[in-house]
Every structure is written in C-alpha cells, then in structure tokens.
Known about the structure:
- Helix content is about 60%, strand content about 10%.
- The chain has helices spanning about 35-45, 75-135, 145-155, 170-180, 200-205, 210-225, 225-230, 250-305, 315-330, 345-375, 380-400, 400-445, 450-460, 500-520, 535-555, 575-580, 620-630, 635-655, 660-670, 675-690, 705-720, 725-735, and strands at about 5, 20, 25-30, 50-55, 60-65, 70-75, 465-470, 480-485, 490, 525-530, 565-570, 590-600, 605-610.
- The strands form three sheets. The chain has a six-stranded mixed β-sheet with strand order 4-10-11-3-12-13, sandwiched between helices.
Amino acid sequence: MLDSIDLNNIPLFVDNSSVELSDTNLIYGKNGTGKSTMVKAISHQINDAEHCIIFDGMKRFIRPDKKLNAILLGTQNLEIEKNINDLLTLRGKLQDQLNVAKKTYDTHKGSFNDSIQRYQDFVWDNVYRHFQHNFPKDLRGWGGSKKSFTEKLKQLGTKELIEPSSLQSESEILSKRNLIKSGAKLAIFDDYTPKLNIERLTKLMTNTLSNTATGELSRQIKTRKLESWVQQGKPYLSPNNPCPFCGQNITQDHYKFLENEFSEIINSTYQKFQEDIETEVEEIQQAQAQLQVWQEDTETLSSENGEGFKASVTKEVVTVNTTLKLLATTVISKKDNAQQSIPIDDSLDSLKLALEQLASKIKDVNERISENNRLVENSVKSEKELHNQILELMRIRCLKPDVQACQSEVRSFQSQLKASSEEKEDKQKEIDKLDYKIAKLRSQTQSEEEAVTRINHLLGLLGNKQFKLVCPTVNQGVSGYYTIEGKNGIQRSVLELSTGEKNLIAFLYFFYLVEARISDAEPVVIVIDDPVTSNDDQSMFLIITLIQNLLFQAKNINADGNRKLQIIVLTHNSSFYINLKEWTGNPYTKKNHSFHLFATPRGSVIKKISNKKEDIINNYDELWQEAKFSFDANQKQTLWNQIRRILETYIKFNNYSESLEHTIRDNIISAKDTEKKLIALQLVKIAHVNSHSIDDLMQDLSPWSKEQIRDAFEFVMIILGGGEHFDSHWNETGN
C-alpha cells in the first residue's frame, strides 16, 4: 500500500515532492499533464507485480494477431509473445543471412557441377576412350556414362599400388594376353659359349719371332755344343743389327753367315709360329660359325614363340660377331708382323663385354619366357594380375598433369562449396534452434478460458453492440489466442475491431485479474489510467459500473480501518471523473481523495480537492441544480421534465436496457407501500407524458404538491438502488 506518491527527481512536476493517498483516489487531468508519469512512479515505488495491478492501456493485456486473426490474451502470454517476437526478429536476421548463404551455395554448387562436367568430359575423352579401345574386356561395366566412369575411377585410389619396377607396358600386357589366349608354353633359348683359348691366344700375339727364335737357338746351341763358336763369332757382330743371342745389331755379312748357319732353326721356328697363328684363327672362325648356328636356332625358336617373344639379341650377336671378326683380323695380321708384339687386351675385353651383354640378353629373354609360361599355367590368376596392371596404368594416367589440373579445379570449387554448405547448415541450425525455442515458448502460453467466460458475460451486457471471444478450433498448438464473434455468430476480423473495443477487452481482462486478486484476500493496489479511451457510451457505462463496484468493495473491505484494497484512478474524461466520483459517497474525506492535474509554464501541479465547490461539474449535476431550483420555485412542470432527464440519464448510465417506465414498473409494483407505489407509478407516467407536452409549462397537471413529487422521485431512486445518490445530489443543493 502507498501512503503517498514520491515525485522527487521527476522534472515534469513542480512544487509537489509527494502526494498523500487514501483508500480510493480519483485524479483528473488533461492529456500531457503527467498521469502516465505518475503511474510509472507508482509502479517504481511498489515494484511488486503480485500486489500491484496496473491498467495503463491495452498493450499490457492483449495483442491483436493479424496472421491468426485472433486476440492474444493474458499478461504472461504477452510476455511470452514479447520474447517470441524478439526471437522472431533475430530469426528474421538469420533468415536473411541464410538466404545469402543459400545463394552463395547455389553459385558454388553450379561452379562445382560445371567443373565436374569438364573433368568427366576430359577423362572420358583422354582416359576411357584410350583404354576402352585397347582393353575393352577390362573396362566392361565401366562405361555407360561419363559420370559412372569417373565414379569408377575413384575406386582405383583404394587399390594397392604396384611397384614401378613391376609395372608393365601396354604392349607387354597385350603380348601376355595373346600368350594366355594361345595357351602354348614357350621354349627356353640356349646359351652361346664360344671355345677360345684366351691365354694361349694372348701369349701368341704378344710373342715375337725373335723371342721365339732366341729360345730355340739357345736350345740348339746347348744341344750342338756351339758355345765356343758363338764366342768366336763375337768379333763379327755389328752394333747396327740385332744379334740373335744378345739382341745387338750385326752386319749384313754376319747376318748372312748366321742365316746360313741357322736357317734350319729359323725356318723351323717361323713355320711353327705361322702354324700357331693359323690354329688361333681357325678357333676364332669356329666361334663365328658357332655363333651363326646359335643365331639361326634362336631366330627359329623366336618365331615359334610368337611375334611378341622374338629374341631381342640381334644387336648383341652383331657385336659379338664383329668383335670375333676384328680379333681374327688382328691375329691374321700377326703373320706379317712376327717380329712385333701385338697386344689384344682391348679386343679381348670388347669380346668379353659383348659376350656378357649377349648372355644377359639371353637371360632376360628366358626370364620373360619363364614368366609367360607361368602365365599360361595359371591363366585365371594371370588375367587378374594383368587386369590390375591395366588399372594401375589407368591410375597413373589419372595422375598426369592434364587430368590433375581438372581434378584440382574440381577440388577448388568443392572446397568453396563445402565452406558455403557449412555456412548454410550453420545458419539453418541456428534458425532451427530458434524455432525450437519459439515453439517451446508458445507451448508455455496459458489458456484463459475462465477469464474469457467472465469477459463474455460482461460483454453480453452491451446489447446490440455485444460480441464475444471464442477459442478457435485450430489454435496451432498454442493457448491464449481467441477469435472475435459478433452478435450474429459470424467471426469478425481483428482488423475491424475499434480502438474502444480492444480497450474494453483489455480492461475486462484487467478487471478479471483484479477480482481474482481481491478474492485472495491479499493486500493489493489497483491503478487504473484512462480506462475509457475511445469507448462509446455503452462501453463507458460498463467500465464505470465495474469501477464503481470496485469502489464499493474497497469501502467494505477497508471498513475495519485496515487498508487492504487501494484504488487509484486517473482520467482525462471529465464526465467519467464526475460520474465515478459520485459513487464514492463523499469524495473529500480521509478515505476518498480527489486530485486535479494542471499544466503550468513551469510544469505540472497537483491539487487536492477539498470540497465540491473546488471540483468540476457536469451537465448531469446541472440537471440536479435545475430540479432543485424548480422545486424551490414551485415550477412542477419544469420539475417533472428535470426528473425525467435525470432518471433516463441515470438508468442509461447504469446500463439498464429498457425504457424508464419498463425499467422501474415491476420494482414499483412489487413495493409494499401502496400509497408511494401509486404515486411513483403516476409520477413516472406523468413525467414521461408531460416532459414531451407542448402545453403551458405553468399548468399544474397533477394534484400533488412539490413535496409529494420530490418524495415520489426519491422513492423511485431508492427502488433503482440510487438512494445515496439522491441524497448526495439533492442535499448538496438544499433541504
């Protein structure tokens, strides 16, 4: 409860540090004088939603939803809706980002698909067509489409790699395929091994006739015992010719002498030297003949083994044959150069190298033949190995720069596509999370069926203007939304609801909350700010009646002096203020306060009203003053007319739907006082007739005195439940 409103530090107000409050407080002020500011100050001071209920417009209690064509009802529902709207705002921003991400993704996807198409076209033209032409059997099931072929190529990356040393060429694979197809095993080639006495040949070519003769002469001298003769021949030796014994030169005469003497020995030695040369030449020629025979056999065998397995030894055979010919020529030249040493190490080395190359070649060919024989023996396994070889060749082809360039382009666009896809998915996940939060919040909305029942009951009092709230059949999984149904049972659009109608629904929901809080018997402050904004007469009377009910309840609840219900009403509507003020009984007591807000050049000023003379007056109060004036002047015709206007205004203000006569007739008839009953019925009838009469106003159409008319008027007001209202208005103007 508030004893006063603290207005300190609020620049709008001047000379009012605080405003003392009572049980019921009526505050009148034009728009802009600070009513809403005072409501905020009250809310800030109390700061307890459980014990302070504020009506300051429809936004706190309802929200029209154009999309659902319904009214969202309830403070908690509106708070949830506010949180939902905040999330929806964020969702809208994320949706914009998602739309951008989707466009980026679509662009990258198009570029990626184009790059894939270029890659598929390239490998189809440069890989598939080549291998399909050479190895159609191995690519069975790989064709059909460029896409399926590129998908098949991916499988090559999962296969075990083949060592480069074991990798075969396409021609080798084709050759082996033919061998497997023929199913024939191949013969192994023989080795070629020439029979040459290399040591003897080397010795012959390095020896000379002189060296050979020297050895023979020495042997003959010893045999014939010519040592002394040799000694005797020394004086004849010449330094210019070589001596067969010592190697020194001798004269021509001495040479002839020696030749004649040793011709037998020399001739014998020379002859043997020539014979040795012939022998070596013959061996070389035999090696050549052996090579020719081997070559002929090899060619025959190669032809039998098939075109793919001809011995590739021609070059090596030619080399060996050429080397043998050169060696034979060199040996033959020794005949004419018996006196010279002719080294043949280089020729022999060449021959040795040529023979080694030939042997290596023969070995290679035989190994191939052995391998191919193995293929024939294990044709199924061999075919599989060859198939894997072809796949490896395809894999290696795909690693070439031209194919790699296409793949690199695909990977680049794929990377961009992946990044944009992740961005799109991240934004979608964020939106999904928000949608989950929004759905969860919507599921927390509460049904307001009890409040709607109470609101509809009160709306039913509007007569021809009545409408009601209806829970839609399809509420889309949420509560608190209600459609508007007119009196004719047809659903109305929320867009057609007037500001007054929406304000009325909000106030009726507020009133429902107030009733529930009062029933809890807990202390509560009720603040009502401009409740009749844009309302028509019927709605205004309904709102006034409900507030009047609160004022009566406050009087009863606070009767024991313990304030449990405090009411603060603020308005800019003078008629509303005056009519409501009268229902407080005496609005100028300790329990009932009235205030006026005034705007001054320095700011707003609040003035407490101490008596009726300081308060504002309306046309209704003027009717009472005129009625009292007519009573005092004994002008009964005028008095009856004022009574009629007062009564019709009163029953309209209190929301009676029938005419004056119909409204009070049954109540008058049921009264026990027969005399007053007749007077009251006649009063209403005469007042109703004479108020529309065009006769002389001074003509007295009734036999009653002005006092009897006044008493009958009071009796009717009491029947209508306005006895105190009569006393307060009549007594204010006199006795």
